[in-house]
Sequence to fold (98 residues):
Amino acid sequence: MWSKLSRLSYGQLVLLLWFVQHPNKTGSVSELAKQTKIKGKALGGVLSSLSRTKYRGLPLIEPWGRAVDDTGLRWKLNNQLGSVVEAKKEIARLVATY
Fold:
């Protein structure tokens, strides 16, 4: 897990940190844009890359249906990846190094 985390970009780490801080919450595109300061196409790219990033064959995040305000999809941390939540301190440390 650590080697995979160290290869993530700043935007990916920021977004992944939001997800591990809110492991049981879904985030819509508009909500994530407000809370992480990643906007527009950049946010879409980061969400897409995190959903394609696999750990033990499972995606880090997964789509969780349409957003209520029709601004795209809602996203959720894959709850089968308990080790990702345990990595919260490491993710926060990596974000702070940027």
Notes: The longest helix spans residues 40-52. The mean pLDDT is 88. The chain has six helices and five strands. The radius of gyration is 12 Å.
